[in-house]
Amino acid sequence: MDFGTLIGLLAGLTLVTIAILLGESPTAFWNVPSLCIVLGGTLAATFIKFPLPALVGTIDVVRQAFQRPAQKPEELVALLVRMAQEVRRDSLLALERIPVSDPFLKRGVSLAADGAEPALIESFLRSEAIAEQERHDRGQRIFRSMGNTAPAFGMIGTLIGLVQMLTEMDDPSKIGGAMAVAILTTFYGAALAYLVFIPIAEKLGERSRADWLHREMAIQGLLSILNGHHPRLVERRLHGILGPGRMTNGRLPRNRLRPAA
């Protein structure tokens, strides 16, 4: 579980709720017609914009906003360096003896152990990475679209409320309800957009970039191993992708290069 996402959502909702409860009439912020206009309209527009299979597939992508990556980049580097060391001492068959938890890297290792050419392995893995990247990008587009649509339906609800209010000017008792719809739809639209939809889209973007980094490191590391590069060259190559901020004195800490028990 990525507690950052959960804490952010709960903190935002809590602070808004506290601000409402501190007012003299908290129940005034609950309006079913306003909520139906904003939430219902946003969902309806989303179903129009995107095909149903894409929306269903986004459910799995959204889970990534609430989960940490299964493996840290530094751990992946250490694993690939260990693989290079084992292959250098033995052969490519040594790859099958090393436990690999990452499904993406595991498929590449399986192809390598079966004797597939490096070019074929790279083509296979990159095709899979591109397909996964597209799936992540689609999830971002859906939530960003919802973030743009919710305030628009808030404005539509405001116009509906104003029209209702103007038609009831001769009956002051009905003006309050129409005014509530006019104001609360804008509030609901802004709250959903800037507290839920757009932050989730941004978090999915960060997850997508981290996933791309992980897959690129797996591909480059595996290709270096297949080309017979020295473990130190494998490590240096991965450092170029990972960036200097994750290194200690130009290399990973020594304890990260020790083979797993």
- The helix-strand sequence is HHHHHHHH
Query: Kindly state the mean pLDDT as a whole number?
Result: 82
Q: What's the Cα radius of gyration?
A: 26 Å
Number of domains: 2
DSSP helical segment count: 8
Percentage of residues in helical conformation: over 70%
Query: Hey, roughly how much beta strand do the residues contain?
Result: under 5%
End-to-end separation? 26 Å
Write up what this structure looks like.
- This protein folds into 2 domains: 1-30; 32-257, no CATH class.
- With 261 residues, the protein is mainly α.
- Helix 5 packs parallel to helix 7 (172-226) and helix 7 packs antiparallel against helix 8 (231-242).
- Mean pLDDT is 82; it is low at 247-261.
- It has helices at 3-21, 32-49, 52-63, 73-89, 103-113, 118-167, 172-226, 231-242.
Write the topology of this structure.
Layout: H1 3-21, H2 32-49, H3 52-63, H4 73-89, H5 103-113, H6 118-167, H7 172-226, H8 231-242
Helix pairs in contact: 1-7, 2-6, 2-7, 3-6, 4-7, 4-8, 5-6, 5-7, 6-7, 7-8
What is shown here, in short?
With 261 residues, the chain is mainly alpha-helical.
Give descriptors for this structure.
single chain, mainly alpha, 261 residues, elongated, disordered C terminus
